[in-house]
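pls design
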């Protein structure tokens, strides 16, 4: 979070990128965290670029929620003996926005 990077189900996002400056959508539409429900990408872009401490706090809150949800979903896949399909689907979706981070 302190570097302006957020992890989403479709891949990492760099909130420093100008493409987020006018985006009124949530950080990640699939995420239940208060950051995603209450703040837009445009606002997060603004506070990241401004160096506001709230940017780190909100992105950390989101990233922790994302990884908790990811691990919960992975554990369910293990229980269902469906790890390979889960991983294949996750990686296919996750790579969609790799260009956003320069990766």
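designed seq:
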């Amino acid at each position: 979070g302190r570097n302006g990077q957020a992890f989403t189900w479709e891949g990492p996002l760099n909130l420093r990128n100008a493409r987020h400056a006018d985006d009124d959508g949530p950080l990640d539409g699939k995420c239940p965290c208060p950051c995603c429900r209450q703040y837009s990408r445009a606002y997060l872009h603004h506070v990241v670029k401004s160096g506001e401490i709230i940017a780190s706090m909100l992105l950390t809150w989101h990233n922790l929620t994302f990884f908790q949800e990811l691990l919960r979903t992975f554990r369910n896949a293990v229980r269902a003996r469906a790890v390979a399909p889960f991983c294949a689907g996750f990686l296919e979706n996750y790579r969609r926005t790799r260009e956003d981070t320069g990766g």
